[in-house]
Amino acid sequence: MAMNGSINIVDPSCHQKPPLAIDIINELDMFGIILYAVLTLMAAVAMLVYIEECVYVYRKVSTPKKTAIAWVNGAAPVIATMSCLGMWIPRATMFTDMTSASYFAIVVYKFLILMLEECGGDEEFLRRCGKNTLKISTGPCCCCCPCLPHVAITRRTLFLLKLGSFQFALLKTVFSILSIILWTNENFDIADLQITGAAIWINPFVGILTIIALWPVAIMFMHLRSILRSQRIVPKYAMYQLVLVLSQLQSAIINILAMNGTIACAPPYSSQARGYLMSQQLLILEMFIITLANRLLYRRYYDPLPLSDPQEDDNDQNTKIVLQSECGDNVA
């Protein structure tokens, strides 16, 4: 923006669509070339590390657990890859962002499944924890409601917890496809906050679905964090939460600042396009670091979970020995 007397002259590119990929390449200076090259290399390395980790997990881990590990580990490299594509092709930002968000919606459900598989599966979880109760006054829904009663752990409770997370994996993908369809018909614009716009109805509803999906995961983690401490579930959950905050909350804050004009226009980028660019570049760096951290957490030998009650197991073994002795005496 330039001043000409009392008249403000705004660069026309500040109101144009995001630039094409070829325009970005033509505008890059030496610093830009190095920055784009380094970030692209980070995204590529993150994906290669993830592929190598998947090969290791599929060889060393049993079937139910390895699928959940592969999905959960893929969150950071997939987001980094989509952010890299959005950085190079700004007009595809909505598609890359929705792909990342849809993938992470599946990860929310898969992390719940991962915790159950770390226990040995649904049956083993019910055997270990069937006599206990679940504390449901946890975030993000009911952390301020300590008066809520504890819930018995049953098959029905486990089914409802799974359903609470699975609905987000399904409906987030459906709403992403719907948003893209409406966008092609010029009915969906994330910056359009008018009551007649589709974004003002879809985005809050997806936000409610997100909160509902995160609640069962938090309930299960609070119950299993001591049981699964040997499986390093606390740092795994921390990495999962970090991906959530960075990919959802951080990006939302930057995009809101861009839509309000707080982030200045920098031709050939409009204010909103520049906000997307900053968000994508930050995500590539952050997801690269998280990918390396996840490799240390997941690429290892998986020891069996310690017995829930060693004394009870000893009693069972003693009972079997006594029965075998009695059978031998009867035969004699």
TrEMBL record:
* Assigned keywords, A-Z: Membrane, Transmembrane, Transmembrane helix
Q: Where in the cell is it found?
A: Membrane
Q: Does the keyword Aminoacyl-tRNA synthetase apply?
A: no
The name under which this protein is listed is Organic solute transporter subunit alpha
Native organism is: Aldrovandia affinis
Q: Where are the transmembrane segments?
A: 33-58, 70-89, 159-183, 195-217, 238-258, 278-298
InterPro entries reported for this sequence: Ostalpha/TMEM184C
Main location class: membrane
* Cellular-component GO terms for this entry: membrane
Membrane-related topology note: Multi-pass membrane protein
